[in-house]
Fold this sequence. Notes:
Structural class: mainly alpha
Strand content: under 5%
Number of strands: 0
Low-confidence stretches: none
Oligomer: single chain
Amino acid sequence: MITCxxxxxxxxxxxxxxxxxxxxxxxxxxxxxxxxxxxxGITLAVILIYAQLLAKKRMHFYTxxxxxxxxxxxxxxxxxxxxxxxxxxxxxxRLLEDPKARQIAIDELTNCKKNFSGIVAENIVALxxxxxxxxxxxxxxxxxxxxxxxxRGIQELYLMDQKNLLTKIYRETNSKNEFxxxxxxxxxxxxxxxxxxxFLDVISYPLTLWQQIKLLExxxxxxxxxxxxxxxxxxxxxxxxxxVIFALRLAAEYQQFAVIDAIRGCLVHPSSAVRTxxxxxxxxxxxxxxxxxxxxxxxxxNFENQVHILDSLLSFATDEQHAFLEKLLDAPxxxxxxKAAMVLANNCTDGLSTIEKxxxxxxxxxxxxxxxxxxxx
Length: 377
């Protein structure tokens, strides 16, 4: 019955004006025209794709040819005793009239500069300047619309030791773009060493963890330990929380014992992240007061920092911390109890007997804690 009803409705539809229009539209002539249009569209799409692939192929071979020529010229020139006295062929200059060729030359020179030192490195920089490629890098810094172009320009300039442009690069250490300011900060350190850390006095944007690691890596290239005791206290007062954290990292990295009192002051910082870093720094610079300092601030800290303090006490706690640790056996959290028990057993003369007595009075959880302490002692 349903099938009959459907056939009836279809028949009525085809009898109406809409049905007639549909039949006209689906006529063999119209279908043929539609197929022809589709065929033309597909043909045009194939031609367009082929043209794009051909253009990319030609550009690849063109770029490869330029790169090979530039590599040969540069290799020949930088191995000379001095670039200044060399007459660079006009053919080479004509080659560099193409912007693509100029960028390839910059890339080749910066890559060479990373791998060479001494006279060869000096020749690389001299050639970069003589060819006027510095202006290309400088123009990139001015391209405020594309951060990746700005960052690339900064990198080219510092790798080519353009120290006379320090002021321009320094302005970008507080750029609103994370990648631009990161590259500028690396540049300042690369060219001036520890003196470049002066950007910490002015930056208002945060220093990411990754950027802090990169800055420390850059500073390690200078080898010797630097005395930062006159600068770190100022950075610890910064309104930029990440500057404070980085200053604490610097204090630990370069063993700045002279600023330990300023570091202790960070234990009351409103930021938990700063306090955590201050605790870790104090542990690295530990002196006879460290255990008293950390136990004194213990009750005010969050759970994570409390655990970290107890872990650190394993390194330098003594019988003088016995009373403090025994009191923590009454803490509401079993992890704190366990950590305190570990320090008691390992660092205090009668620490293990203290835990054994608690296990007799309060089997749960101290029997389990006692077994664990004995298993790792």
